[in-house]
Design brief:
With about 325 residues, the protein is of the alpha/beta class. It contains 10 helices and 11 strands. It folds into 2 domains: about 160 residues, Bordetella uptake gene, domain 1 (D-Maltodextrin-Binding Protein, domain 2, 3-Layer(aba) Sandwich); about 120 residues, D-Maltodextrin-Binding Protein, domain 2 (3-Layer(aba) Sandwich), CATH 3.40.190. Helices cover about 40% and strands about 20% of the residues. Helix 2 crosses helix 8 and helix 4 packs across helix 10. The longest helix has 22 residues.
Length: about 325
């Protein structure tokens, strides 16, 4: 029997109500916040601010970056965990947070149980550098020199437990060399040591030294990621230069409290992936020495878990004391 006009109208109103309710449930109605557990001006902070601009356009709301420095990202993590699990308050995480979980004796949060991981946003390639006038021009040269001079080669790194330091320890282990890791407080101190030959090589994040590579006072001979950096296509990866399987990238992503609904996590993930895939974002981050890269929640979760296991093994093998 055909529906009466009245029933048609009722069905139409009901359908419209369902559509409106669904749209409202999926939309953001106020500003979002990304909490960064480090001070302003660092690699993670700069990338987050650029991505936040693009994300704002995707969600139709301002995205504010709030710095909350604290050991092991603890201060920022706790602020996010104490917020409502609704997707409006997010935490910048990544390999540094994974390292902290292995490096610190105790943290007030559990990275795998207390958070849901939304999407990666960028990779921070590290490079192996030498003095611009050094005879060490390839990774093979470095390995050969270290093996000919056991215990005499110095490798500059950042603070103990940093990605740079662990990259050096992983390189020593996988290359089978005996060398001394020398930690420095700042990138400037490390570069000065390379230029004065106090260290023969050093591992550093690409972004703060990218401009100096053009001056020829230092030179990059290997990239620590599993792919060549697009801005330095002539610099091979360490993996393709005699240390198969070597990979020690730094990267950043976005996480939210574990109680955040799955549909909100999925919506945020798609918005972030769209934001970092924008050509202007890709170009801007590459010019800064970064690689814009989004991921699914599942892929980011798998990467966090893999990094936690990987760096825990490196820390234990290098006998780095827990902090």
């Amino acid at each position: 029997m055909p529906l009466t006009p009245f029933i048609y109208r009722c069905c139409a109103v009901l359908a419209a109500g369902i559509v409106c309710a669904t749209a409202q449930a999926q939309s953001f109605t106020r500003p979002l916040t990304i909490v960064v557990g480090f001070g302003p001006g660092g690699a993670g902070d700069l990338v987050t601010r650029r991505v936040a601009q693009a994300l704002s356009a995707q969600v139709g709301q301002p995205v504010v970056v709030e710095n909350k420095p604290g050991a092991g990202n603890a201060a920022g993590a706790m602020q996010v965990l104490q917020s409502r699990p609704d997707g409006y308050t997010m935490l910048l995480t990544g390999n540094g947070t994974a390292i902290s979980s292995a490096l610190f004796k105790s943290l007030p949060y559990n990275l795998t149980k207390d958070f849901r991981h939304v999407s990666s946003i960028a990779g921070f390639d590290l490079v192996l550098i030498t003095n611009g006038n050094s005879s060490l021009s390839t990774v093979a040269d470095v390995i050969a020199y270290a093996k000919a001079n056991p215990g005499k080669m110095n490798i500059g790194t950042s603070r103990i437990g940093s990605t740079q330091h662990l990259a050096a320890e992983l390189f020593k282990s996988m290359a089978g060399i005996d060398a001394v890791s020398i930690p420095y407080k700042t990138t400037g101190d490390m570069i000065a040591a390379v230029r004065s030959n106090d260290v023969q090589v050093a591992f550093e994040i690409l972004s703060p030294i990218l401009g100096q590579l053009d001056s020829n006072t230092i030179k990059a001979i290997g990239v620590t990621a599993d792919k060549r950096f697009p801005g330095l296509p002539g610099v091979p990866t360490i993996a393709e230069s005699g240390v198969p399987g070597f990979e020690a990238s730094s990267w950043a992503g976005i996480s939210v409290p574990a109680a955040t609904p799955a549909d909100v996590v999925e919506r945020l993930s798609k918005a972030i992936q769209a934001a970092v895939a924008a050509p202007d974002v890709q170009a801007a981050l590459q010019a800064m020495g970064y690689v814009a890269a989004g991921s699914s929640p599942q892929a980011m979760t798998a990467r966090i878990e893999a990094d936690m296991a990987k760096w825990k093994s490196v820390i234990e093998r290098a006998k780095i004391p827990q902090q």
